[in-house]
Amino acid sequence: MGHGSGMSGSLAFPPQERVIFGQGAVEQLAVEVDRLGTRRAFVITGTTIAKRTDLLPRVQEILGPRLAGIFFPISQHVPQQDVMHAALQGREARADVLVSLGGSSPVDGAKAVALCLSEGVVSEQQLHSYCRGPHQKPLRGQPLPHIALTTTLSAGEFTSGFAVTDERRRVKDLYGAPQFIPRVVILDPELTAFTPPWLWASTGMRAVDHAVERLYSPKHQPLVDALCIQALRYLFCDLPRSTREPRNLEVRLHCQLAAWMSAFGFLSVGTGISHAIGHQLGGHCNVPHGQTSCVILPHAMDFNCQAAADRLALVAEAAGIDMRDLSTRQAATAAIGAVRRLVEALGCPMRLRDVGVKESDFPLLAEAVMDEAPHFENPRPIAGVTDIHEILRQAW
Questions:
Q1: Please, which residues bridge with residue 98 across strands?
Q2: Residue range 371-393: average pLDDT?
Q3: pLDDT for 217-241, tens place per residue?
Q4: Which residues of 368-393 are buried (b: 16+ CB within 10 A; e: fewer)?
Q5: How far from 218 is each of 11, 232, 261, 307, CA to CA, in Å?
Q6: Which pairs with CB-CB distance under 8 Å and at least 24 residues apart come from 243-252?
Q7: Which of 64, 129, 368, 390 has its CA 20 to 30 A from that of 292?
Q8: SS3 of residue 279 by DSSP
Q9: What is the 3-state secondary structure (H, E, C) of 90-119?
Q10: Each residue's pLDDT tens digit, 146-178
Q11: 303 and 380 in contact (C-beta within 8 Å)?
C-alpha cells in the first residue's frame, strides 16, 4: 500500500452479522438461534469444558428445546477423524445451526463440520479435496450458520479460514471461504473463568501475533492499523493482569476485545512468517497454537526488522515505550524486547526445545512452511528453506 497522498486500498467485510460482548452476554444465545430462523442447535466443544466445568450445562439450559445434540471432544489441532465423527453426529441430529463452545479447536472444528454438512463430505479423502491449493474443489452448498461462544484469545471466531490436521501426513491443512466465518460471536468474560491460565496467556500472545503481523503486513491499511494498535495497548497492559486476576472480568473483557481487534480486516490484511511457522509447529509437533506465537513471534519480528522498522516502531509505541530519543530502528528493536518481556512476564515458553520440538524436526517443518508461505504476507521476502531454518535455529 502506498504512503502519503498516494495512499489507496480496499477493505473486504466478511459475512459476520453480530458480535455481542459483555458480562452475561451468553444469555443472548437462544435469542440469536431464534433470530437466525434456526431450531436445531448442535454444540461442539472439547473434553475439558464438557467434563470439568459447568459451562456445557449452562449452555444446555439456555438453549432448552433448541438443543439437538452435543459433540466432544474436538481435540487440539482439529484431527480429521474428530471432524468426521462430529459431522456424522451433526447429520444424524439434523442440525440447522452449529454452536462452538471453547477455543480455536472447537471453532475450527465447527467450521470444518459446516463444510462437511454443506458439501456432503463423508470421508477424510473427500474433505482433503477442499483444502487450499491449485486443485481445491469449488464449494456448491451453503454452510450452516455458526454461533461461537469463545473462551480463549486465539480469535479464530473472527476469521473464515480454518485448519484441520491430517494425522497420517502430520500436516495441518488450510481451508476457508468467507461463508465459514461464524455469523454470531459472543464474548462473555464469565465463560473464561475456567480457562487454564497457561492457555489464556498463550492465546493472548496469539492475539499479539495477529496484531503485530497485520501491522507489518505489506498490505497494511489505516483502519486495521488503528485497531491493531489498540489491541496491543490492551494486551501489553491487561494480559498479565488478567492472567494474575482471573476473576477480574473487566480486564478479561479488554483482552477479549483486543483479540477481536487483532483479527479485524483479515480478508484484506494477512499475516506473515510467524503464523506460517506456527501452523506447522501445531500440525507436525503438536505445539499448542498460542505457544507457537510465544516462541516464534520475537524471531519473526527480528527477521523482518530491517524491512519493517517503521511498522515495528508502532508496536513499541503501543507497548508504552518512550520514543522521544529513539531512532526508527531503535524503536523496532525495543518492540522486539517488549514482546520478549511480555512472554516472560506471562510465564510462557520462549524456546522451541521447551515445547518439545527437536532439531531433527527442522527439515520437515521448513518444507511444510514453504508450501504454506505463498498464502502469507511478509515484509521481507522469504528466500527459501534456509530462511526458515535460520528462524527455527534461533528459536531453538
A1: 42, 146
A2: 91
A3: 999 999 999 999 999 999 999 999 9
A4: bbbebbebbbbbbebeebebbeebbe
A5: 14, 19, 19, 10
A6: 243/197, 243/200, 243/201, 243/204, 243/346, 246/192, 246/193, 246/195, 246/197, 246/200, 247/193, 249/23, 249/189, 249/190, 250/189, 252/189, 252/192
A7: 129
A8: helix
A9: HHHCCCCEEEEEECHHHHHHHHHHHHHHHH
A10: 999 999 999 999 999 999 999 888 888 889 999
A11: yes
In order, the DSSP letters of 123-134 are SHHHHHTTSSST
Q: Which residue has the cell 471432524?
A: 83
Q: How far apart are CA 226 and CA 217, in angstroms?
A: 14
Grid cell for residue 396: 531453538
Per-residue confidence at 284, pLDDT binned at 50, 70, 90? confident
Q: What is the pLDDT of residue 133?
A: 83
**DSSP secondary structure string, 349-375?**
--SGGGGT--GGGHHHHHHHHHHHGGG
The cell for 368 is: 511444510
Q: How many CB atoms lie within 10 A of CB 108?
A: 30
User: According to the 3-state scheme, what is the secondary structure of 284-320?
Assistant: HHCCCHHHHHHHHHHHHHHHHCCCCHHHHHHHHHHCC
Among 309, 275, 19, 302, which residue's Cα sits nearest to residue 157?
19
Cα(246)–Cα(260) distance, rounded to whole angstroms?
A: 19
Q: Which residues contact 40 (CB under 8 A, 6 or more apart)?
A: 66, 68, 93, 94, 95, 96, 97
Any alpha helices (H) in 122-270, and if so which ranges?
124-128, 197-215, 222-244, 249-263
Contact 75, 106 (CB under 8 A): no
Which uninterrupted H or E stretch holds 67? strand 67-71
Q: In whole angstroms, give the CA distance from residue 311 to residue 25.
A: 35
Q: Compute the distance between CA of residue 230 and CA of residue 257 in angstroms, rounded to an integer.
A: 10
The residue among 124, 379, 132 whose CA lies nearest residue 279 is 132
CB 167 within 8 A of CB 79: yes
Angstrom distance (rounded) from CA 212 to CA 231 = 10
- DSSP character at residue 218: T
